[in-house]
Amino acid sequence: ELNSIFSKGKPAANRVKNEIKELVSKRVNLGNRPPGLGVIIVGENPASQAYVRNKVRSCAEVGFKSLLIELPVHVPESMLLEHIYGLNLDNTIDGILVQQPLPTHINEFNITMAILPEKDVDGFHPVNVGKLSLGRLNDTHVSCTPLGIIELLSHYSIDISGKHAVIVGRSNIVGKPLASLLLQKKPFLNATVTMCHSNTKDISYFTKQADILIAAIGIPYFIKMPMIKRGSVIVDVGINRVDDALSNTGFKLVGDVDFGEVSREAFAITPVPGGVGLMTIAMLLRNTFNAYIKKL
Ligand code: GUN
After folding, report:
1. Domain-embedded: residue 219
2. Is the CB of 97 within 6 Å of ligand 1?
3. Ligand 1 atom closest to Cα of residue 100
4. Which of 109, 136, 256, 293 could form an SS bridge with 215, CB 3.0 to 4.6 Å?
């Protein structure tokens, strides 16, 4: 039996949050305004509402100002754009986030393009994606979940350099930016990266070779025990709602990994909930703080 460490997000996220809280209080004590995050949500998707509540609460915890703009599901794209232009011009707002997914009548790319790259704390703007790809990490914002994964591994002293990282999932929010990040020529990155996705043939052939396996495909229990290498590190990015008659909400959250069986063979595995999700929010705060410092 391997000595599994269960890599929870809470201690790592709290360390980041406390660090930011202290830095904010120093700036505010010097007479500066606090960092500000503008959050826009369109419609009433319960999962999105939960994420956004969490983001707004986390801002308060570290001393940020937050501005929540809630728009009805049928809001015209032009009106959503007007709100973004307003936040772009607002000198008390350092970061702007439009919660995804958006209703189908709104073009997500137009929305992403409208946010000033320096305020794009999600790291979705093509300028920021391009800079990540070019290795210019110091003057860009990187997508929060990939950053959170690196921070989590680093918190638990899990070495990435030279390791084979296999990413399952090719989204613009997680899979692709994570691959770019892991590939960076830096002492604590430097991974060898393989990308798999829903059309990969014989996915087990690849996942079994992973020293670090990142599951970000959005399918509950997708990664099962026979698919992993014994003693590997498993990062579960999935947040899937599955029916659960025993829960008073009628559902429970599960990851992309079949935790029960995989945890017996892995060296370390992140739980859902309480794993990567907490790190994502911590990195949103860090990106917003970095934008604030650049502007101060
Ligand atoms: N939806 C799921 N993840 C994210 C994220 O990181 N940012 C935004 N804006 N929407 C999301």
Report:
1. yes
2. yes
3. 10
4. 256
